[in-house]
Design brief:
Binding site for ATP: 12-15, 55, 59, 163, 168, 171
CATH class: Alpha Beta
Distance between the termini: 30 Å
Structural class: alpha/beta
GO molecular function: UMP kinase activity
Number of strands: 11
Strand order of the largest sheet: 4-3-5-2-1-6-10-11-9
Catalytic activity: UMP + ATP = UDP + ADP
Number of helices: 9
Helix content: 25-40%
CATH architecture: 3-Layer(aba) Sandwich
Strand content: 15-25%
Largest sheet: 9 strands, mixed
Shape: globular
Binding site for UMP: 54, 74, 135-142
Order of helices and strands: EHHEHHEEHEHEEEEHHEHE
EC number: 2.7.4.22
Amino acid sequence: MSEPQYKRVLLKISGEALAGDAGRGLDFGVIGSVCQAVKQAISMGVQVGIVVGGGNFWRGVKDGGGRMERTRADHMGMLATTLNCLALADVLEQMGVEVRVQTAIEMRAFAEPYIRSKAIRHLEKGRVVIFGCGTGNPFFSTDTAAVLRAAEIDADVILLAKNIDGVYSADPNKDPTAVKYDSITYDDVLAQHLQVMDSTATSLSMDNKIPVILFALKDPQNIIRVLEGEKIGTIVKEEK
């Protein structure tokens, strides 16, 4: 096994990816494979924080748009992320991995409130920390939450595990001429309006000089490949 290229990472997992082919709810086969990869990363000595989306249960803008007040719809999305956090935590614990769930909205009965110093202490002790409820504020995506938490815990890189295998010049499902980038700058992502993360998340990542590697979660071993330095997906970073 190769030496890991990163000491501390923030893994962002989309909620839709946890749903598998069904598209909604939880696919425990997928979750089990993801958790096995996380366990392997911990055994390599990598400190892992996780932010998970909630789109497999509820997407505030999409599901509530036009029918609900935006803030309340986003609050429901925060609850959806917590469902995913608890599912991930349970599967990891069954595998013998120590986990702490921290939420930006207090839910003391089953999660710690987010406290930066405690999160870092957990990471240093080899525990996986799963961050729920996004930033705790409406109008901010879980991608933005991932960048914020990565900056706060001083992560070396953000691993963006999605249902697509990299950043393309256009939507590859709609444009057969779309070109996949191996590397691209934050500025180009913003200028071309590419669908890596929303503009707020991309700008925050750029301002804090945190590289983002986007890759497909369809094969969870991609997490380990990235940690070992294999060139997969697309890296978004500063221009050099």
